[in-house]
Known about the structure:
Elements: E1 2-5, E2 9-15, E3 22-29, H1 33-46, E4 52-56, H2 66-81, E5 86-90, H3 94-105, H4 110-130
Parallel strand pairs: 1-4, 4-5
Antiparallel strand pairs: 1-2, 2-3
Helix pairs in contact: 1-2, 3-4
Amino acid sequence: MGIDFGDSRIGVALSDPLGIMATPHTIITRIEEEKDITTIVDIIHQNEVGRVVIGLPISMNGTLGMQAEKVKAFAAELAKKIDVPVEFRDERLSTVVAKNLVRESRKTDRKTRYDAAAAALILQSYLDDTAPPSDVSDEPDYPL
């Protein structure tokens, strides 16, 4: 599961069972932290999630600002409620890229779709970096 944490909304993305492709799942409109966490815990259980990857907003100079501290505090509370690992992923520019992708797809519900699309980008980045290398010997032989 990928999470793009924001003050107003939380974007959620899930991967396929093989951990190859991330897709936007939902957007949680923030109500209060306990309810937000309960909603995420429910999604984790319903989808048999094995790991949570939360975007950490690191500034362009590499420092952690106030929003990153909010994300870390939220992640700590979430981790207390679940039995799966929680990891952070640098999310610099994920929202900018997500906005461009959503704009290109011409979705009608663009504003809130950014959050789920950003969560999918965060998760996809993690999946791409942690995928085992493919074994070239398993590739079929093609004529040249």
